[in-house]
Amino acid sequence: LNIALLPGDGIGPEIVGEAVKVLDAVGKKYGHTFNYKKGLVGACAIDATGDPYPAETHKICRESDAVLFGAIGDPKYDNDPSAKVRPEQGLLRMRKSLGLFANVRPLVVFDSLVERSPLKAERVKGADFVCIRELTGGMYFGRPQGRSEDGNTAYDTCVYSREEVERILKVAFEQARKRRKLLTVVDKANVIATSRLWRQIAKEMAPQYPDVQVDYMFVDNAAMQIIQRPTYFDVLVTENLFGDILTDESSVISGSLGLLPSASLGSDVALFEPIHGSYPQAAGKNIANPMATILSAAMLLEHVGLQQEGAAVRAAVEKAIAQGVVTEDLVDASMPGQTARSTTEVG
Amino acid sequence: LNIALLPGDGIGPEIVGEAVKVLDAVGKKYGHTFNYKKGLVGACAIDATGDPYPAETHKICRESDAVLFGAIGDPKYDNDPSAKVRPEQGLLRMRKSLGLFANVRPLVVFDSLVERSPLKAERVKGADFVCIRELTGGMYFGRPQGRSEDGNTAYDTCVYSREEVERILKVAFEQARKRRKLLTVVDKANVIATSRLWRQIAKEMAPQYPDVQVDYMFVDNAAMQIIQRPTYFDVLVTENLFGDILTDESSVISGSLGLLPSASLGSDVALFEPIHGSYPQAAGKNIANPMATILSAAMLLEHVGLQQEGAAVRAAVEKAIAQGVVTEDLVDASMPGQTARSTTEVG
Ligand SMILES: CC(C)[C@H](C(=O)O)[C@@H](O)C(=O)O
Ligand SMILES: CC(C)[C@H](C(=O)O)[C@@H](O)C(=O)O
Predict the structure, then answer these.
(1) Is B95 annotated as ligand-binding?
(2) Which of A89, A112, A316, B239 is deepest in the core (most CB within 10 A)?
(3) Contact A34/A3 with Cβ under 8 angstroms?
């Protein structure tokens, strides 16, 4: 299996390094060979090449079966969002050029960590849903985007075509079919035209999935229900910008951002990454939690058909949590008297 | 004082009726005369006139000093968001034609109700912030909006002009100045052009308010922080669609939707309304909580300079809560053995 490694910025290199240790252990135990190729992306790529997603990195990704990605972002760019070259541009270009149109984020609340959730335990316990975010359309890529000549008016365009909507809804219907069979389509069809297209197409497709119950929810209501009734959801699907907001909102209710993996799927190559960011304050300190990246590697294994191997990785992570072999972010919630382990120890 | 009453749909007429009782009591006690004029808006206006915001209603609003609004929305329109005439259109037209560009929503967590919040008590206790949402621009009103000729592509436009951004930021800076002096400007400046204009203008204006600390936050991060650290915020300002999502998210963390008022401010006339919706299931049953509407009336009084009168209304609401004179939605949280009171009793 050819795996592209894109560690990126901040804690990226450390956490991806630990996931590679885990993959190597899997290879040894189950008799697989993983070939890694490293590529630059984000701020480190700008520093080295001037380009946040160099052609060389794109080539490495295209020639791989899957990509394991760390995180991008550096504080030196955060306070200057209008800088000509920014790490985010690399991320967006990577998603678009690899055709990664479906971002899949499972949200599980670990029983043992329920006290870490900002929500009351009885509300959040048992929550287990998947957010599916469209990742290569909408306002992120719609044109025209820019300023009037005098600079005093700005505009963005949100565009969706039938083809874009159908392919992401197909992913969502199929996920729902494999799970509890409830699909929540989130939009703002009472106000915007692109949402009305989404809702129309979802209604057209629904009869092909008679076993799936489809539920339509306005995005403002969804933002409330995720907090009010997180256990209600099974599969939630939405467009790019709403997905950006709702997936992040969903992720914090678990109380353990450091445990959440994600997959971005498209035509051929798939990409796996932890949902937390580059956490620059922790970079180089050997304190970041590598579990979300390790669980992303588990998703990668499952994606290429190595179910047993993926399950073994998940089991190892759960065992480590149960035994209190965790980084500082998870210490309080587990056994008393335990101390924070380093990134490498947890890995 | 000339007050336009727009009860709207669902529980609207009941809750506005109770607020009028309160206003009349204020008038009697403090020697004011309030002249009311009623107008139709929403589903009831469509039923009566075919138009969700009839010209007659607009005239009544224009000739008033302030508008007290209930809610709009009827289930018969909810499942058909592409119906030609919809209650929401009336709402949007009303906002636009009255120039109500600033939606102001104070979010207070009552200590005695902290157990009703979906958030853990220690997280949410003491949260006290104001969301300011731009209400007449962005994707809600941007054109072009629609479909390609073959119907297979849909598009929306988000537009903001300097003038629109400046006037709403001015409201926000001034609010912050009256409060804890922390203004959080929420945008997605790392991806969209309208957000970059917002951020640029906020940075230009900040030196005029040296006493206000300005904080820039991406909308996805804000969706997380509202849950993680609700006590952090003082004044939060954002564009129309982000505001739709974030104000609703914020409102549920209080655990008492039935207590949250709002104001929509513009050039001359101002509008006041509870943030909960038309709650059609409760319509006509005399069970809906009128307190959010009564507190909206308090905001109305304060807006026209009747500070003492507004404070008296607030004090009365707090006393009613403390004494357990509450509708069923608030019963559990207050004293044991108490029973739910009706809308009219609470009024
Ligand atoms: C960094 C930013 C461009 C990106 C996005 O908005 O998609 C991030 O928030 C994410 O969700 O991966
Ligand atoms: C009903 C709808 C058009 C409206 C909006 O999106 O503005 C509502 O959600 C609100 O927040 O008042």
Answers:
(1) yes
(2) B239
(3) yes
